[in-house]
Specification:
The complex is a heterodimer of chains A (413) and B (411).
Chain A lengths: L1 E7 L3 H12 L4 E5 L17 E2 L1 E2 L3 H11 L10 H14 L6 E2 L5 E4 L5 E4 L1 E2 L1 H4 L8 E6 L7 H10 L4 E5 L12 H8 L2 H11 L7 E6 L7 H12 L3 E4 L6 H16 L3 E4 L3 E7 L2 E8 L4 E11 L9 E3 L5 E3 L52 E3 L9 H4 L2 H20 L1
Parallel strand pairs in A: 1-2, 1-16, 2-13, 9-10, 9-11, 11-12, 16-19
Antiparallel strand pairs in A: 3-4, 5-8, 6-7, 14-15, 15-16, 17-18
Helix pairs in contact in A: 1-9, 1-11, 3-11
Chain B lengths: L1 H6 L9 H5 L12 H7 L22 H5 L6 H16 L3 H6 L2 H8 L3 H8 L2 H10 L16 H7 L8 E4 L2 H7 L1 H13 L3 E3 L8 H5 L3 H20 L4 E3 L2 H13 L6 H9 E3 H10 L12 E6 L2 H4 L6 H6 L5 E5 L18 H18 L3 E4 L2 H11 L2 E3 L1 H8 L14
Parallel strand pairs in B: 1-2, 1-3, 3-4, 5-6, 5-7, 7-8
The chains are: A alpha/beta (413), B alpha/beta (411).
């Protein structure tokens, strides 16, 4: 089957590129070896949270940041384009009700009580903005890996008035309920009733109430609003450890939008190679039962992720390789040096490894020329960023996915 | 291959994505989820020791393997663990019985009216529920009272240099021979000489009911029948997605059958829609299709998705003028072959199917499409909406249902 564009990878970068193209009437196919980053990350859109210290306004900080980090994907993107990608996402995902923008970062508490800046946050999390001041109560449900006392203590240590309550909600026969299990329960009125009843009389005036981000999947907005109404105060969610329910909502809403726009998505097929000719990618080849399948298209988006997702591989001989097209890689510290440093929290030699690209996000060769004229790359595949230090992961994925689609649309016109 | 399946455990990073997708653990606390009974429990399984009987509540739908971002063969590992469990405790008579569709077919076909009456008689179903453990409300197909094989042996397929072998499976042979005739008609319409060698069950139901030994015997017998054609380079086409997957992959990956014949047959086997779409890609599919002004929701069954071929039915049916297909995104209908027939699992199976049933209902259509036979029966059972294989729409689009009606306005 010939498509206009085949996108490899179903994380935020791949889905953003695919959705934008499908909305423009292109026949789009997303092929992914599995479900990925959306289900592991909190669904906040962090554009630039830290540049040495916490960033208050990404819009103001970005030009200087890009100038100071040659080879960083943000070097390829204008602030206007990043802002446009954010406004685009907000308008496409009404269920998530994203709030914020590039002008100022919202600062949300993490599950361990750290303060993390994000440009765009789901409306169910917005009430946790630490900049607003006030007092916080964090509610535990017996969910593993969410310890409200630990969260509150750490926040209190940095001067935020916070305390914790641990509830024992009714869980029926199940003893080990995970985040998705809680999310399903929150969609049942009786469960919400039990939570509200347990909290009655235990709230202090002016306190904002934080729950782990498990307030429903498809009905999260309704659940969250009901809790705010019934508890008569701001209620917000705190992102949990994986699996991330807020990330599942993002995936569900984006894939539903993609289907509505006529896009196709195939999960469970690993792209293992490509057919190329005359400086163009003609097709990608994916593993299937008993044989390989070939997907032809006029253009391709590589959003297969970095080391964690297998888009970039490191073998036991220390050789690094882009897994599908064997593209040139950049961002590695000098050859022959150590691959890891014992100082875990310092920047590691392989942190910035990825695919270098030109201004149209096309992977480049050693001379800086585009390797294939119709191949674009986006997301964690790209070289130059350290998203976990910069708090830039989803912002980069969104903006580069959006921009890759833009480059393809531009090339068509 | 089975070693490679088990070795894939090492790639599990415990991200729990499979748990969030498993349609069965979502609706029952009896199944703790694919990661718990798979990569987690597998660490404690040594030869001859099963640590956890809850793996029996895995339906084998395979969604966990599809969504795993690290390529861990979760469903395959769990199928093997389930077989080991039953090997130790003995396979119940009920599981042995419902896992042999061709035996049931041979018994039921000559007495079809009686058998169909019995399968719908409340008192007898209650008895079967109590004595055998087959749920009294579980969907049961109707014996056609004739076999597709018999029709095929009498049928003279037009001579052509382009040949194809039709592996029809048990569902077509005993329950849906008319669908088998449509498959043959569509292939012949596209210029193929269709050969239908004698064939028996592929062994899939035995595999999912834990009797690997009997399943291996079935698949080997089937492969012996099909291998001569495959060696000649004749493609083998099937409209049964789960049996096709058995031939393509599961016999090797789950049952561990390793021989050259099986490999040759695997590589020659195509899902019907996959095959037709490949023809279309080469410009060899006829597109003399008349309009079908219908809106039809389409469910791609779990086993169809296991083929890794996308959803070719949607691309094929897009060729039919005025036919609007709605791609449903519910993961599973719940039946999983024989899973939903079991007394202790019927309610679970219906709860899994609920979202799909609702989506079919909300589409407002009075016709649905789905590739797998047991899933179609489950959809009809859960919604009352008639469900057809996509090829039936193609058959109607080609006008093969009314060949005499030349001149009837198209649409």
């Amino acid at each position: 089957m010939t498509h206009d564009t085949v996108v490899i990878g179903a994380g935020l970068a791949g889905l953003a590129a695919a959705l934008r193209l499908a909305e423009e009437g292109r026949r789009v196919l997303v092929v992914a070896k599995g479900v990925g980053s959306t289900h592991l990350a909190p669904a906040t859109i962090d554009v630039l949270g830290f540049d040495g210290e916490a960033v208050e306004s990404p819009a103001q900080a970005l030009p200087q940041f890009a100038a100071a980090h040659p080879g960083h994907p943000y070097e390829r993107l204008s602030v206007e384009l990043i802002a446009a990608s954010i406004e685009w996402l907000k308008s496409r995902l009404p269920l998530s009700g994203y709030r914020g923008g590039l002008e100022e970062n919202v600062v949300l508490p993490t599950a361990v009580g750290a303060a993390k800046p994000s440009a765009l946050v789901p409306e169910t999390m917005a009430g946790g903005d630490l900049r607003a001041g006030g007092r916080f109560l964090f509610v535990g449900l017996g969910l593993k890996d969410f310890y409200p006392a630990y969260l509150a203590d750490n926040l209190a240590g940095s001067g935020v008035p916070a305390r914790a309550i641990e509830l024992a909600p009714p869980l029926g026969r199940e003893t080990d309920v995970g985040s998705v299990g809680f999310a399903r329960r929150f969609e049942q009125p009786a469960f919400r009733e039990a939570i509200v009843r347990e909290l009655a009389g235990r709230l202090e005036p002016e306190e904002r109430v934080g729950f782990p981000a498990v307030l429903g999947i498809r009905q999260a907005a309704e659940v969250w609003r009901e809790l705010e109404t019934r508890l008569e105060r701001p209620v917000f969610e705190v992102a949990t450890l994986p699996p991330s329910v807020s990330g599942i909502r993002l995936f569900e809403e984006m894939t539903a939008a993609l289907r509505r726009a006529g896009g196709r998505i195939v999960i469970g097929q690993t792209v293992v190679g490509a057919e190329t000719a005359n400086g163009r990618v003609e097709a990608v080849v994916a593993e299937a039962a008993a044989r390989t399948g070939t997907f032809r298209a006029r253009s391709f988006v590589l959003a297969s992720g970095g080391f964690a997702a297998g888009g970039v591989e490191l073998n036991s001989y220390g050789k690094i390789r882009e897994a599908i097209f064997d593209l040139a890689l950049a961002g590695a510290a000098t050859n022959g040096g150590p691959r890891f440093l014992p100082t875990y929290l310092e920047e590691q030699p392989l942190d910035r490894v990825g695919v270098p690209v030109d201004d149209r996000l096309r992977p480049t060769d050693a001379e800086g020329r585009p390797r294939y004229e119709n191949l674009h790359a986006a997301g964690a595949t790209l070289a130059g960023a350290v998203p976990w230090r910069e708090a830039s992961g989803n912002g980069l994925s969104l903006a580069t996915g959006y921009a890759a689609a833009g480059a393809i649309l531009e090339g068509d016109s | 291959v089975t070693e490679r399946v088990r070795d894939s455990l090492d790639h599990c990073v415990k991200c729990t994505i499979c748990e969030t997708f498993c349609p069965f653990s979502q609706v029952t606390p009896l199944f703790p989820g694919p990661k718990y009974v798979g990569p987690q429990a597998e660490r404690y399984r040594t030869a001859g020791i099963s640590v956890d009987a809850s793996v029996d509540y895995c339906s084998g739908c395979g969604i966990c393997t599809q969504v795993c971002p690290q390529d861990v063969k979760i469903a395959e590992i769990n199928s093997q663990a389930r077989a080991q469990l039953w090997e130790e405790s003995g396979i119940p008579f009920r599981n042995q019985l419902i896992a042999r569709p061709s035996v049931l077919g041979r018994l039921g076909t000559p007495v079809a009216p009686l058998a169909n009456w019995a399968l719908r008689n409340k008192a007898l179903r209650l008895l079967a529920h109590r004595l055998l453990g087959i749920h009294r409300h579980a969907p049961m197909p109707r014996f056609a009272g004739r076999t597709f094989q018999r029709w095929a042996q009498r049928h003279r397929s037009p001579v052509s240099r382009r040949r194809v072998v039709y592996f029809h499976g048990c569902g077509i042979n005993y329950y849906e021979p008319a669908l088998g005739e449509m498959v043959v008609a569509v292939l012949e319409h596209n210029g193929f000489h269709v050969q239908v060698p004698p064939q028996d069950c592929c062994g899939l139901p035995l595999q999912s009911n834990g009797n690997f030994e009997a399943a291996r015997a079935y698949i080997r017998r089937l492969v012996a029948k099909l291998a001569p054609y495959a060696r000649e380079g004749v493609p083998i086409v099937t409209n049964s997605t789960s049996c096709g997957l058995m031939l393509k992959r599961e016999a090797r990956e789950i049952l561990g059958v390793e021989d050259d014949d099986l490999r040759t047959v695997s590589e020659a086997t195509y899902d019907l829609c996959e095959f037709l779409l490949l023809l279309h890609d080469r410009g060899e599919l006829r597109t003399d299709l008349r309009a079908l002004p219908l809106t039809v929701p389409y469910h791609a069954p779990c086993q169809q998705r296991g083929h890794g071929i996308g959803k070719p039915a949607l691309d094929l049916l897009a060729l039919i003028p005025d036919l609007r297909m709605i791609e449903l995104d519910a993961d599973c209908c719940g039946i999983a072959g024989t899973y939903g027939l079991k007394k202790e699992k019927y309610e679970i199976s219906m709860a899994v199917g609920e979202r799909l049933f609702r989506d079919v209902w909300e589409s407002g259509a009075n016709l649905a499409a789905c590739d797998s036979e047991t899933c179609r029966w489950q959809i009809e059972h859960g919604t009352g909406v008639h469900a057809v294989h996509p090829v039936e729409l193609l058959y109607r689009g080609y006008g093969l249902d009314a060949p005499a009606a030349v001149g009837v306005s198209a649409g």
